[in-house]
Specification:
The protein has 473 residues and is of the alpha/beta class. 37% of the residues lie in helices and 24% in strands. Bound molecules: guanosine-5'-diphosphate (GDP). GO terms for molecular function: GTP binding; GTPase activity; translation initiation factor activity.
């Protein structure tokens, strides 16, 4: 490979390595320093691949206003377990996709598109819940434009409902409330609306801005209304993308298929992905051998907001990885290899969690007004509220503490996910992180701090904040 890049003979390179005392064969990997010595020895120029090169190759030029075309919204359904997320996704798919489709078979590829009565096209992510939403976001792929929050009318606003609200707010994604199971005789939608008020979600029925629709995934009642509400919200957002550029998309899901090799469902975000395109996706690369849509049909291309299965990968990427079309296979491979190496280096350096001070510094670098996002978990509601109140008092014009999420109970993986996505530390007050959360925090470098005295917690955050302030003078 090295000889090839230098346009030298392999034998000469191997000989030269041997003269340096390295007994290698032509397929052996050599380290970077050795490679550089060899390159110099042969009188060639060294060019290291770096982040900025990667960015150069992946054209990130901004689009001209006249090139932007409307695109469908991408919707994620969230809500508490058993409130009907899966049923709702199935009901929407069934009424809108299967009907009229020859054979009526839809493929589960991780996302699907429907057309509303009024002709609007909507793209639904088929993985309900905020775990997927957050893990995508933490990998830099914010694909969701609208969150549909499902609350069962025969139940209440539950912990995961609140989590979902906070996730949507942290991501600044608008919400639509679907009050589900309206067919049940014990359904009490008014109670749901009132409870939402306590979480600063004011629905239209309560003279607020958030659209709310009563639905039943079982009878189909309200489904069309829900879809039109989404279409209306999308119109307000004025979502656009440039279909005439090298495609970029996000991996929704990926797996190794026995018959087809690595397959990834990609939601195109901008540009148009075509058969034959060369691409890099996370640490993998490839050339599009075939594109398959949510109806299981082969398609020649996929434009913005369209989900497609991509065949022709060299390996299996991860959900949330970003796909970029590049010009040559050499570029694609180089970027993929660079990323794999960078990820390896990062893992080696991990273990050292990001400290409060570093997070503060980062907040400071990022914005005019520094904002330290935090998560709070406590043993009882009273403590959680007291901490949130104390935290919100810290700060002045330059620096502010923002509580992304607070709750009662152990620190979970979902908390760590949200913390990572937002660059926030997690504070546990008289609670610990469970084992999966601890592992996940170690891997992701998320800082978890434990306290049993509120004053200590407040003091630490204040110290970090004032450290930041004094550093600015
Ligand atoms: P998820 O955990 O949020 O995905 O919830 P599921 O979709 O699995 O639904 C949980 C339970 O509620 C299942 O037993 C569903 O059959 C039931 N369910 C969902 N939607 C409705 C509905 O609109 N009406 C009634 N009566 N039951 C529903």
């Amino acid at each position: 490979e090295l000889a090839n890049r230098m346009a030298e003979r392999v034998a000469d390179v191997v000989k030269s390595l041997m003269q340096m005392g390295m007994m290698v064969t032509q397929n052996q990997t050599i380290d970077q320093d050795t490679a550089e010595l060899i390159i110099e020895e042969f009188g060639h120029r060294i060019q290291r691949v770096s982040d900025s090169d990667v960015e150069d190759v992946i054209q990130t030029e901004t689009d001209k206003a006249e090139d932007l075309k409307p695109r469908p919204p991408v919707i994620t359904i969230m809500g508490h377990v058993d409130h009907g997320k899966t049923s709702l996704l199935d009901a929407i798919r069934k009424t809108k996709v299967t009907a009229g489709e020859a054979g009526g078979i839809t493929q589960h590829i991780g996302a699907y598109q429907v057309t509303t009565e009024s002709g609007a096209v909507l793209s639904f992510l088929d993985t309900p819940g905020h775990a997927a939403f957050t893990s995508m976001r933490s990998r830099g792929a914010q694909v969701t434009d609208i969150v549909v929050l499902v609350v069962a009318a025969d139940d209440s606003v539950m912990p995961q409902t609140v989590e979902a609200i906070n996730h949507a707010k942290a991501a600044k994604v608008p919400m639509i409330i679907a009050i589900n199971k309206i067919d049940k005789h014990e359904a009490n939608p008014t109670k749901v609306r009132t409870e939402l008020l306590q979480h600063e979600v004011v629905v239209e029925a309560m003279s607020g801005e958030v659209q709310d629709v009563e639905v039943s995934a079982h009878t189909g009642q309200g489904l069309d209304e829900l879809l039109e509400a989404i279409a209306l919200q999308a119109e307000i957002l004025e979502l656009t993308a440039n279909p005439d550029r090298a495609a970029q998309g996000a991996v929704i899901e990926a797996q190794l298929d026995v018959g087809r090799g690595p397959v990834a469902t990609v939601l195109v975000q901008t540009g148009t992905l075509r058969q034959g395109d060369i691409f890099v996706v996370g640490e993998q690369y490839g050339r599009v051998r075939a594109l398959v849509n949510d109806k299981g049909e082969r398609v020649p291309e996929a434009g913005p907001s369209v989900p497609v299965e991509v065949l022709g990968l060299n390996g299996t990427p991860e959900a949330g990885d970003v796909l970029n079309v590049v010009e040559t296979e050499a570029q694609a491979r180089e970027i993929a290899e660079y990323r794999a190496q960078a990820a390896k280096d990062k893992r080696a350096a991990a273990g050292a969690a990001t400290t409060l001070e570093q997070l503060m510094q980062k907040a400071k670098d990022d914005k005019d007004v520094s904002e330290l996002p935090i998560l709070v978990k406590a043993d009882v509601q009273g403590s959680a509220e007291a901490i949130v109140q104390a935290m919100e008092k810290i700060g002045n014009d330059e620096v502010r503490v923002r509580v992304l999420h607070s709750g009662v109970g152990a620190i979970t993986e979902s908390d760590v996910g949200l913390a990572e996505a937002s660059g926030a530390p997690v504070f546990g007050f008289n609670v610990r992180a469970n084992a999966p959360a601890r592992n996940s925090a170690n891997q992701k470098g998320v800082e978890i701090r434990y306290y049993s005295v509120i004053y200590d917690l407040v003091d630490d955050v204040k110290a970090a904040a004032s450290g930041l302030l004094s550093a600015e003078i």
